[in-house]
């Protein structure tokens, strides 16, 4: 059995005096893609911020490829190939799509793979190729999300983290983006995805964690009882 590429071990974290994560432990990459779900405001985004170096934990370890990266800078973590696409299309609005892609390939880890990754992005998101010189601020919400994920792929991820990738998208664009994320997974990039669309998460993930009040309340691994959509929703809303 392969080792997990990421292990989160007893992490406690928060903001000032407010503790959000409480001794949380989980792993990713041993069985395949990981899906995180749970009520809003219960720690999912905070957990991703700790993993990607945007928030320093109060205690615990974040082990990526055998190295404890807790407390490392976000820049250093990106250079290791751990790439986080946060909620909300946080891009440079006055850059073109092409400029964003070039920024994604900036790190020494990614630079040798720039051309091959650009080809992958264009194949995955042909709409972006048609608008390569267009400024990000002129794009639709779905197109901006494509740019966000494309820029992350230009960083040559060894693990890709997506926080609510389909949030606020129209149904047709959402379906297109979900198909693209599945294609990324089939290409061999392991994923951690936070998502409200439980059906998509069930299709994408081999391992699921329910995050509730800053802790893992339920873990579902391959080979264990397969939960259906209604059971998942019951756990989600506490019915």
From TrEMBL:
<keyword id="KW-0547">Nucleotide-binding</keyword>
<feature type="domain" description="ABC transporter">
    <location>
        <begin position="6"/>
        <end position="238"/>
    </location>
</feature>
<comment type="similarity">
    <text>Belongs to the ABC transporter superfamily.</text>
</comment>
<keyword id="KW-0813">Transport</keyword>
<dbReference type="Pfam" id="PF00005">
    <property type="entry name" value="ABC_tran"/>
</dbReference>
<dbReference type="InterPro" id="IPR052156">
    <property type="entry name" value="BCAA_Transport_ATP-bd_LivF"/>
</dbReference>
<dbReference type="GO" id="GO:0005524">
    <property type="term" value="F:ATP binding"/>
</dbReference>
<dbReference type="InterPro" id="IPR003593">
    <property type="entry name" value="AAA+_ATPase"/>
</dbReference>
<keyword id="KW-0029">Amino-acid transport</keyword>
<protein>
    <submittedName>
        <fullName>Branched-chain amino acid transport system ATP-binding protein</fullName>
    </submittedName>
</protein>
<dbReference type="InterPro" id="IPR017871">
    <property type="entry name" value="ABC_transporter-like_CS"/>
</dbReference>
<keyword id="KW-0067">ATP-binding</keyword>
<dbReference type="InterPro" id="IPR027417">
    <property type="entry name" value="P-loop_NTPase"/>
</dbReference>
<dbReference type="InterPro" id="IPR003439">
    <property type="entry name" value="ABC_transporter-like_ATP-bd"/>
</dbReference>
